[in-house]
Design brief:
The complex is a heterodimer. Chain A is built from nine helices and 15 strands. By secondary structure, chain A is an alpha/beta fold. Chain A has a single domain, classed as Carbon-nitrogen hydrolase (Nitrilase/N-carbamoyl-D-aminoacid amidohydrolase, 4-Layer Sandwich). In chain A, strands 1, 2, 3, 4, 5, 6 and 15 form a seven-stranded mixed beta sheet that branches. In chain A, helix 1 links the parallel strand 1 and strand 2. The longest helix of chain A has 17 residues. Chain A is globular, with a radius of gyration of 18 Å. Chain B is mostly helical. Chain B has a domain of 182 residues: 3-Layer(aba) Sandwich (Rossmann fold), CATH 3.40.50. A four-stranded parallel beta sheet of chain B has the order 3-2-1-4, sandwiched between helices. In chain B, helix 2 links the parallel strand 1 and strand 2. In chain B, helix 1 packs across helix 2 and helix 4 crosses helix 5. The longest helix of chain B has 23 residues. Chain B is globular and about 50 Å long. Chain B starts with 7 loop residues before the first helix and ends in a 30-residue tail after the last helix. The chains are: A alpha/beta, B mainly alpha. At the A-B interface, strand 11 of A face helix 1 of B.
Chain lengths: 283, 273
Amino acid sequence: MKIKIALAQFNTKLGDVTGNLEKHLERIEAAKKEKADLLLFPELSLTGYALQDLAVDSALRPHQDDPVFNALLHASKGIDLMVGFVHEDRRHRFYIASAYLSEGEILHIHNKVYLPTYGMFDEGRFFAWGNSIRAFDTRFGRVGMLICEDFWHASPPYLLWLDGADILLFASASPGRGLHEDPRLSSSEWVEHTNRAYAGLFTNFVAHANRVGYEDGLNFWGGSTIFDPNGDLVVRAPDFNEALTLAEIDLNQLHRSRARLPLLRDERTSLVLHELERILGEK
Amino acid sequence: MINLTINTKLAEKILTGFIHAEVTRAGFKKALLGISGGIDSALSLYLSARALGPENVLALRMPYKTSSPDTLEDAQTMIDDLGVPSKTIEITPMVDAFINQHEDMDKKRAGNIMARMRMIVLYDQSAVFNGLVMGTSNKTELLLGYSTVFGDSAAALQPIGDLYKTQVRQLAAALGVPDKVITKAPSADLWQGQTDEGELGFTYEDVDKLLYLLVDQRYRPEACIEEGFDRTFVERVVRRIRQNHFKRVMPPIAKLSQRTIGYDFLYLRDWGS
């Protein structure tokens, strides 16, 4: 089975959900014209990233009755979507979240589990920490979603892999940093190495949508990518510029890569669990 | 290993993008800046001209009677090179009218008055030109506090504020800033014979390396001394960074209410844009 994935690498307006929704709908139309099956948007694509006190004002309830979600659900007929938003739960906790929409339904919501609160980051001050990491079924097989800092930690992609995800869908609003002699920033290099490593170590597809643009002095570097189960680059969007980047992936590659390299078959989860229990002092 | 070499193409891409994004989202198309003939304002000028188009950047020369004529010429060379509009507004009558009222005026006060007078002229011209005032401060001088508060530090944007002086030189060379501007001794030119390095008591090349360890690499002062930096030099620089922090932050607001600007009323400047 071959599917066409589109990466909507774009800039957002800070705290302007209506303006950003319009941009989503435009990209969705463009991706539909290109016959994409799945379109990925970056982290907080409906709101912008450094929201601070705007977080609560731009929060959404992911539901048919919400006008923004209603429009997106309507647009998800014929193309699956991953969108980024501020998720306000029933108890009025605010999460950085990604929603997966398909054929007018919300299939899954992932609340960001790791909130960077150090250096230039202050997410833990404004957002609640997500509490679950789950794969879910789509018409393309089982997938898993993570958001930026989630995949700076090795355990969330590992858990999704064990939970059956063959395609990892990553979203970021990654501020560029680390200017040296190299033609790319340290942060760009680091994220790309990591994504390539997950693809290779898990013999999985890894698709990453990162944003571009500026918020005050922060730049967002783009460079969205898809890696295949051999760890090979399928496609890379340009650094710093907006783009709708498309690539076809062949899901049969999973068969071929795992026949050659049975890392999933040989993964000793009971041993991992046993040792984790020992390490955490529960046994 | 201290290596302050930067990829100038990447720096240009990010900084011109920054200038364009932040000027236009504030509702402007244009920018202006004071051109001293020195390298920092030269680099900001070249970056701004590339980001916004030369016709949208006003180079403002604001000489005082003691300003070196050489620097005026260097500024003219760059204005001609880029094809940007320019203006020359002498600050001598305004500064002298002020200075002459005080018999006990010293050169430091006079220097600060000149820097602040230039700020007044720049902000007034920003209303005429309908542009934002572009800052010209580099990371070295911001960290050392080598500036006049509300004078040359006043600006809408600081495009080169995360580049050390030695990195400013690299990027300036890559963008075609004239060699003469890059190699001349850095000077605030507030009085004759003044040089930055003379006044600071160390060279930019040395202090940039130390600042890189202290700030970027989070070395403790003791660890810098172990790396071979002179103890007195390290202590002086550490003290300067701390003592001048007030120049780098907004004045603190005394908190009284439940929600106070700066503490729990937090928005980026790009709010809604």
